[in-house]
Amino acid sequence: MTEKPQHVLIVSRAGHPDAPGLAEEIRLWLEGRGVRARTAENNGSDGADPLPVEGCDLILVLGGDGTMISVARQVEGRVPMLGLNLGRLGFLTELTSDDWRGFLKSVLAQCCRYSERLMLHYEVQRAGVVVHEGLAINDVVLNRGNLARLIRLGLEQDGEPLGSMRADGLVVATPTGSTAYSISSGGPIVHPELDVYSVTPICPFLHNFKPMVLPGNLKFTVRVEEPHSEVFLTVDGQDCIPLNHSDVVQIVRAEAHLKLLEPERSAYVSRLRAKGVIE
């Protein structure tokens, strides 16, 4: 059971032709039911034009999963979120442009629940100095460059060495991200509310490293042992950071959780089937 929202921020995908008109329509609908609402456009997570989230108790995102992830990384778990899908697959976006009225009526009637999801915090250390850090909603991926050449990565779990691995790369995914790049790499489907994360190699040499599911309280460390090939760190498919030989990437559970608004009886398996993840 959730409380009735009093102030909703409606964030639309930048450049989408239908988003501004739909955002205004929803704003007027909410205002007509005694809920304060305002609109904003998502311009990315570079901090140049931050979203006005202060005072809001719900953020409604109009766009696809990419927009939802971009907004979630800016919000950092401070405000519950709800997505309306204007994209393609829509794993994170609960609503469509046809059914939003009925769902929002349930929200105002307090007939919904919050789904709290683990997020990851990562940092890149270079010669002992943190040169980059941030938040991941879906996954942190270490991968090779343009050349079809394996890279070598050293792996540790809470300081315990797991050995070296040669592969095209490695996916460290949240439960939410387990149905994204991770599953395409052979990773497991993980229920989104579990306090765990998965580690899945991408095309490992001789298949000498199998996918793992680790408790959320453990720190995972990757050291770039590849001296010759390009190695990149990709976050949620949105940020790309070049890595150097001997760089260390540390990944831990973020302090905050992603909080998504869902129906009280959200059918997770039915959603997987509807998206084609399972038959």
UniProtKB/TrEMBL annotation:
<dbReference type="GO" id="GO:0046872">
    <property type="term" value="F:metal ion binding"/>
</dbReference>
<keyword id="KW-0547">Nucleotide-binding</keyword>
<dbReference type="GO" id="GO:0005737">
    <property type="term" value="C:cytoplasm"/>
</dbReference>
<dbReference type="InterPro" id="IPR017438">
    <property type="entry name" value="ATP-NAD_kinase_N"/>
</dbReference>
<feature type="binding site">
    <location>
        <begin position="65"/>
        <end position="66"/>
    </location>
    <ligand>
        <name>NAD(+)</name>
    </ligand>
</feature>
<dbReference type="Pfam" id="PF20143">
    <property type="entry name" value="NAD_kinase_C"/>
</dbReference>
<feature type="binding site">
    <location>
        <begin position="179"/>
        <end position="184"/>
    </location>
    <ligand>
        <name>NAD(+)</name>
    </ligand>
</feature>
<dbReference type="GO" id="GO:0006741">
    <property type="term" value="P:NADP+ biosynthetic process"/>
</dbReference>
<keyword id="KW-0521">NADP</keyword>
<dbReference type="GO" id="GO:0051287">
    <property type="term" value="F:NAD binding"/>
</dbReference>
<protein>
    <recommendedName>
        <fullName>NAD kinase</fullName>
        <ecNumber>2.7.1.23</ecNumber>
    </recommendedName>
</protein>
<feature type="binding site">
    <location>
        <position position="166"/>
    </location>
    <ligand>
        <name>NAD(+)</name>
    </ligand>
</feature>
<feature type="binding site">
    <location>
        <begin position="138"/>
        <end position="139"/>
    </location>
    <ligand>
        <name>NAD(+)</name>
    </ligand>
</feature>
<feature type="binding site">
    <location>
        <position position="238"/>
    </location>
    <ligand>
        <name>NAD(+)</name>
    </ligand>
</feature>
<keyword id="KW-0418">Kinase</keyword>
<dbReference type="Pfam" id="PF01513">
    <property type="entry name" value="NAD_kinase"/>
</dbReference>
<dbReference type="GO" id="GO:0019674">
    <property type="term" value="P:NAD+ metabolic process"/>
</dbReference>
<dbReference type="GO" id="GO:0003951">
    <property type="term" value="F:NAD+ kinase activity"/>
</dbReference>
<dbReference type="GO" id="GO:0005524">
    <property type="term" value="F:ATP binding"/>
</dbReference>
<dbReference type="InterPro" id="IPR002504">
    <property type="entry name" value="NADK"/>
</dbReference>
<dbReference type="InterPro" id="IPR017437">
    <property type="entry name" value="ATP-NAD_kinase_PpnK-typ_C"/>
</dbReference>
<comment type="similarity">
    <text>Belongs to the NAD kinase family.</text>
</comment>
<keyword id="KW-0067">ATP-binding</keyword>
<feature type="binding site">
    <location>
        <position position="149"/>
    </location>
    <ligand>
        <name>NAD(+)</name>
    </ligand>
</feature>
<keyword id="KW-0963">Cytoplasm</keyword>
<feature type="binding site">
    <location>
        <position position="168"/>
    </location>
    <ligand>
        <name>NAD(+)</name>
    </ligand>
</feature>
<feature type="active site" description="Proton acceptor">
    <location>
        <position position="65"/>
    </location>
</feature>
<dbReference type="InterPro" id="IPR016064">
    <property type="entry name" value="NAD/diacylglycerol_kinase_sf"/>
</dbReference>
<keyword id="KW-0808">Transferase</keyword>
<keyword id="KW-0520">NAD</keyword>
<comment type="function">
    <text>Involved in the regulation of the intracellular balance of NAD and NADP, and is a key enzyme in the biosynthesis of NADP. Catalyzes specifically the phosphorylation on 2'-hydroxyl of the adenosine moiety of NAD to yield NADP.</text>
</comment>
